[in-house]
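Q: My labmate handed me this sequence with no annotations at all. I'd like to see what the chain might look like in three dimensions before we decide whether it's worth expressing. Could you predict it?
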Amino acid sequence: MKKAIVIVAVLLMAVSSAYSQERAQADVQVRSVAVSEAGGRLTCRVEVFSVNDDDAHDTTLRILFPVGVTFVSSPSGCTANPSIASDHTQAFATCEIGVLRHNGGRGESRTVEVVTTVPRRELRISKTFGAFAWSRTPDPRPRNNYNEGTAITVTSPGVEVGEIRSEITGYAPAGCLRKGSTVTIRGSGFGDSQGTRRAVLGGNGISVVLPISAWSNTSITATIPNDSLIRVGLRYYIGIQNSEGNWMSNINRSFSICK
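A: Here is what I predict for the chain of 259 residues:
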């Protein structure tokens, strides 16, 4: 009889343990990934959330960097290894979040932040960060452990020390321009002579150097080439580059190509 009682007790303990393990679940999820650009920096903010019947213990977040960015800092205490993402190296930041409480089924969220550089020579920034979170507590819905966020902005990269900073204020004629026509680029700080600088038409994935017929500190006369890469109906911009291909002017003045 005593032997039977012991066996039953052991079975009850096993069932209780299995039931407890089955109930110990925390739905850890990456709720949002927001990426913004300002002052030559990309800031990635990730919200991690956990909800279910149990706490999420030893919660960890890993933020995957896109190619071309370099880790700068993390106000949230995340660490990067390696710090530079390239075509051959996946860089990421690891953030130790700790415990996320279930709070009676309401759950708990935590927001972390990492700051990286903006690739210097890229004008149209389209960088996607990935974020993956997990914990030691079993997760009933692992599909929501991953999320992504993308920054798409148009920026003017920094100017080399000692170079002239030019400002383009508009074009003449205004409105749309035709291929093969002449355009006057108006502004200031172009320099009294062209030197090694050049005017470049860009946008929609192209970069075309414009033929120059006149150059002064406030006005540049150029020709829109009859180039098949330049398409009617699309919008483009003109900017000034130095001999190394660095932008010396703003590129936020756009125009369309008309027939």
